[in-house]
Design a protein that fits this description.
Layout (H helix, E strand, L loop, with lengths): L5 E2 H10 L21 H17 L4 E5 L5 H9 L4 E6 L11 E5 L13 E9 L8 E7 L2 E7 L6 E3 L5 H10 L10 E4 L1 H12 L1 E10 L1 E2 L11 E4 L2 E3 L8 E3 L2 E2 L7 E4 H7 L11 H4 L1 H18 L8 E8 L2
Parallel strand pairs: 2-3, 2-5, 3-4, 5-10, 11-15
Antiparallel strand pairs: 1-7, 6-7, 6-9, 7-8, 10-17, 12-13, 12-14, 16-17
Helix pairs in contact: 2-3, 2-8
Organism: Fodinibacter luteus
GO molecular function: methyltransferase activity
InterPro entries: NDUFAF7 (IPR003788), NDUFAF7_sf (IPR038375), SAM-dependent_MTases_sf (IPR029063)
Length: about 325
């Protein structure tokens, strides 16, 4: 069988966002993995985001890469006063509240032309940047990188030429090669930085929030983080459209005003994982069970070994 070797960035884009891409599948992302937007976790997160919207004087919340609108549905229930807009690669899903607006996106780093001139807005990108495809490069000699090529049908890899000058400059600033042995990998963040900047250019007044797997300079993963998920299981990354493909984000390279963990951010927004007093179980059993479920979701969202370790990147925009 003849192999077709292309850069990971190109294969990744097609696998997720091509005509038969993973994110266009009927079952949607929720058919393969759970995020903080889903189920009881999403209800708690929505309440916290409503509080953040108030702090940032936002009356409009835009959810970029919103799947099938799960978080927006929770937001509508918690805060019907907020204007809500979803952005994703599929047509408007059935069952979404009528009050929620919808924009179809081309996918990956590309945003729809209708997303522009946003005022008094909180733009939320929950696990969006980690699925913006980026160049994967490997150290082939001390201080020298080669772009990693992949066969989309088998996942077999080989080395190509060097990254572009812009990508190499990004590495100098954000992912230095000093001390990296041959075989170490770099996930070059230029596409993520550009996507974040483009998203910011659509805002005239408001705030942007990226919530994602991430790392900072001094703690970059030498082996890289590219991985895949299918039906709730981690699988070998093969860009054939049958699995999600994701790599952690160099969050400190993104323009930001605040960089914190999810645990820190949610605690600051009033998310409390404390268990309600047991006495309430006798006086109001239904309310006690509801509070217990909320506390359980809050604990999961703030667990430092799990979702609580996600990074929150907040950028404020005020253009005249």
């Amino acid at each position: 069988m003849r192999l077709v070797m292309v850069p990971w960035r190109e294969a990744w884009q097609g696998a997720l966002y091509g005509p038969s891409g993973f994110y266009r599948r009927a079952e949607g992302p929720a058919g393969h993995f759970t995020t903080a937007a889903h189920g009881p976790l999403g209800a708690v997160l929505a309440t916290a985001l409503g509080t953040l919207a108030d702090r940032e004087a936002a009356t409009h919340v835009v959810d970029v890469g919103c799947g099938r609108g799960e978080l927006l549905t929770h937001l509508h229930a918690a805060r019907p006063d907020l204007r809500l807009t979803g952005v994703d690669v599929v047509d408007r899903p059935g069952g979404l509240p009528d009050a929620v607006a919808w924009l179809r996106s081309p996918g990956g780093p590309a945003l729809p032309p209708g997303l522009r001139d946003l005022d008094d807005v909180l733009v939320v990108a929950l696990e969006w940047l980690d699925v913006v495809p980026c160049t994967v490069a490997e150290v082939v000699a001390p201080g020298r990188l080669a772009v990693v090529l992949v066969d989309p049908s088998s996942g077999r890899e080989s080395h190509g030429g060097p990254p572009s000058p812009d990508e190499l400059e990004w590495c100098v600033r954000h992912w230095p090669l000093d001390g990296l042995a041959p075989g170490a990998r770099v996930e070059v963040g230029t596409t993520r930085d550009a996507a974040w900047a483009d998203l910011g250019s659509r805002v005239r007044r408001g705030a942007l929030l990226a919530v994602d797997y991430g790392h900072t300079r001094g703690a970059r993963p030498a082996a890289g983080t590219l991985t895949a998920y299918r039906a709730g299981t981690t699988v070998r990354p093969v860009p054939d459209g049958t699995c999600d493909l994701t790599a952690h984000v160099a969050v400190d390279a993104l323009e930001h005003d605040v960089l914190a963990t999810q645990r820190e951010s949610l605690r600051d927004l009033g998310v409390d994982p404390g268990i309600p007093p047991a006495a309430h179980a006798r006086t109001d059993p239904a309310a006690y069970l509801a509070a217990l479920a909320t506390a359980s979701a809050a604990a999961a969202l703030t667990d430092p070994a799990g979702l609580g370790g996600f990074r929150w990147v907040l950028r404020r925009v005020h253009r005249s």
